[in-house]
Amino acid sequence: MALQYTAYTALLLFTTCLNIFLAWNIWKRRGISGSIYLFFIILAASLWSFTGALELASTSIGSKIFWGKISYIGITTVAPLWFLFTVTYSKNQLKVKRQHIILLLIIPALTTLLAFTNEMHGLVWPGFGYLETSAGLIIIYKHGVAAITSSIYSYALMIMGLIVIGQNLFREPSIYKQRGFLMVLAALIPLLSNLIYALGVSPFYFDPTPLALTLTGILVFWSLFHYKLFDLVPPAYETLFSNMKSGVMVLDLNGTIVDVNGSAQNLIGVAASSVGENVGDQLDIWDEIRPHEDRIDGKIELELQKSENVFLEIRYNQIYTERIPSGWLYIFEDISDRKIAEKALKKSEAHYRTIFENTGTAILILESDATISLANAEFQELTGFKIHDVENKMKILDFISEKDKNTVINYHHLRRSPHGLAPRNYEFSFKNVEGKIKHALATVSVIADTDKSVASLMDITELKETERALKESEKKYREFADMLPQTVFETNKNGNITFFNEHAFKMFGYSPEDLNNGLNILEIINENDRQRSIDKFDKISQGDLSGDEYTAKHADGSRFPIILHSTPIYHNRENKGFRGIIVDISEIKDVEKQLTKSLKEKEVLLQEIHHRVKNNMQIISSFLSLQAGYTESPEAKAVLRDSQNRVKTMAIIHEKLYMVDDFTRLEVSDYLQNMVQSIVNSYSPAPESIELEMSLENVFMNLETALPLGLLVNEMVSNSMKHAFPRSHGKITMNFRSNGGKYVLKVKDDGVGFPEDFNPFKSDSLGFQLIKNLVKQIEGSLEIKNQEGAEFIIEFRELEYKERINNINSVPV
């Protein structure tokens, strides 16, 4: 194909290359709002300038017309794309929908179609003119109805785009105004160039618009790289609008949704397709958040009932364009977390307020200057001051007694110093509302990240009184213990002595320093007794509180006997040690030795006395027996024999006492059995003819009871032997037993019994007189039966021992 080359053709090709370069740079920024439209603008301009260059370079009329038709693709789309760019890029940020783009491109598409089919109707070019110039053949186009209509449409869109840019130009900061002027100039150059060409006043025979677009490309390039066309407000606005966590919705004055970001769509459920729709039809909560007629802004908190309750803070402001209301801006903030936090905070405040009021101690919050900013009811109870008279009106120093003020204020300031070495717990005294001095234990800590401190005050007035009373009691206890002539001691659970009275130091020869060095209780006991002492302490813990004798060890090594009494010290049911007394029994042991020696001597003496008394009674009994042998009178013989038996009865007791170690009590059964047998032997020439049946309980009795009891048995058995058995044979039964603190003695024979007219209680015989007097002597009762023989029943108690030796010196223990 033959071509013709001109300088204008080269310039258009250069413009095409420049525009392609610009389009490539803009394509790299295609994510920025409006950049895609600018990309297609530059691409359309490139097509326009490239087809224009090829049209000039073509040498045939057909080729020129062909490239002229193709150029209409660029010519008709520049203006709509320009309008879309200005609307999208401007601060109005109007949402452009797909249907809007289609509507804007209908006329350009129809015009282009008509251009390609111009031969059929001539609506675009009804005719052509030809001109031969130094640059070659040039076609002069005559524009038809379709071309004129397309031009008017394009001019209108260009002008509207300029208006949009102009509006933003006056609202932009000065730093962006130069960029705006360049954009206006870039749009005016091709617009004016094409307008001059269309009016036929151009000095050139060809359309200079593609050449003008070269200058537009240069200006856009300068704006792109020097003023960073896509790096400032519109991209920032789009990025901010799209990525805001807060939901944003823009409305016009009629309530039509102009724009809504993704966060608002998620929060209030308005879809992106709702743009252009009435907000009342799309938003269920509109009636609750619609602007008030008399207000231009407002804030509303609203709870949305969803699967989980969502709390929104909704703020609205009226939008002004050149000081004229043009719409409403709504911002939706999800405050669910804040509401939950507030609820948790209120719950926590209630929780801690409950704790604050129910700790059982007075609680204060102190400011840095010691002002009481908060106090609980326990503080009012402690001091008597009303809370409303204290909070933010009084300082802690207003309560503290004079002697403790300096200490407390020093602690207060020291606690806030870099070192912060003030004690956390300390005691002080204060005056209550009545002026009475009381005592408190304070626990104070600084609240983290503040200058405030929290103080807990415990009333220890009673404790202080108890301590004072305890110290007084301890003083009295020590003074009392020091007055005692025995050792008073206390140990811990390991046996280390923690207390000695003054007598203890004298008794054992130790000093208070020895106690401080850990003197153990076992160290004052002889080595041979220590294990027994350890075993005894175990028994004491189990309740055995009896005292034991040990050999004590003096500090100088000497030994002496002691009695140790101790009891466990319990605290909270735990054995904490022992306390007790130690008695030096050296003198008692000496007295015991003397008494033992004296007692042994007396025992020997008593045995000798009983032996001699028994021998003397044996002699008396022998004399009576001899005298009976010289007497012919039966009555005299009987009297002598009775007297002899009575003497034998007393002699048997002395014989028993001589043979035993205990002189105070006598085993009665053996004594009575021997005595009865002796009586039977003395009265009967054939003792075996008298059957004795004796059931005697083993009982020990004192001499006061045993001696008259023996005489009673002697008289009753003697009576049976003398009067019951005329044929010299029979049976005597004797039963002796204890019965509930009393004793019962029964003596019975199976002889002839008493005569019917005989009353033993009125008898003046010596035997019955003795029986009655002996029963009276043992304070007993006598019953006599006369059935199948005679029976005596005596019931009595053991007589109390009566001292016969007075003025015996007692030995204290």
Based on CA inertia axes, which overall geometry fits?
rod-shaped
Work out the strand percent. 15-25%
Q: Nearest-angstrom radius of gyration? A: 70 Å
Strands, total number: 24
Which sequence of strands runs across the widest sheet? 4-3-7-6-5
End-to-end C-alpha gap: 154 Å
Q: Largest beta sheet, briefly?
A: 5 strands, antiparallel
Stretches where pLDDT is under 50 for at least 5 consecutive residues are: 803-813
Structural overview:
50% of the residues lie in helices and 21% in strands. By secondary structure, the chain is of the alpha+beta class. A hairpin with a 3-residue loop joins strand 23 and strand 24. The protein has 26 helices and 24 strands. Helix 2 runs antiparallel to helix 3, helix 3 packs parallel to helix 7 and helix 7 packs antiparallel against helix 8. It starts with 6 loop residues before the first helix and ends in a 17-residue tail after the last strand. The strands form 6 sheets. Strands 4-3-7-6-5 form a 5-stranded antiparallel beta sheet. Strands 9-8-12-11-10 form a 5-stranded antiparallel beta sheet, sandwiched between helices. It has a 5-stranded antiparallel beta sheet with strand order 14-13-17-16-15.
Explain the layout of strands and helices.
Elements: H1 7-27, H2 35-57, H3 61-89, H4 98-104, H5 106-116, H6 118-121, E1 127-133, E2 136-142, H7 145-171, H8 174-199, H9 209-225, H10 233-243, E3 247-252, E4 257-260, H11 262-268, H12 279-282, H13 286-289, E5 297-304, E6 310-321, E7 324-334, H14 336-357, E8 362-366, E9 372-375, H15 377-383, H16 387-390, H17 402-414, E10 425-431, E11 437-446, E12 453-459, H18 461-483, E13 487-492, E14 497-500, H19 502-508, H20 512-516, H21 530-541, E15 548-553, E16 559-571, E17 574-584, H22 586-630, H23 634-659, E18 665-667, H24 668-683, E19 690-696, E20 700-702, H25 703-723, E21 730-739, E22 742-749, H26 766-777, E23 781-786, E24 790-796
Parallel strand pairs: 19-21
Antiparallel strand pairs: 1-2, 3-4, 3-7, 5-6, 6-7, 8-9, 8-12, 10-11, 11-12, 13-14, 13-17, 15-16, 16-17, 18-20, 21-22, 22-24, 23-24
Helix pairs in contact: 1-2, 1-9, 2-3, 2-9, 3-5, 3-7, 5-7, 7-8, 8-9, 22-23, 23-24, 23-25, 24-25, 25-26
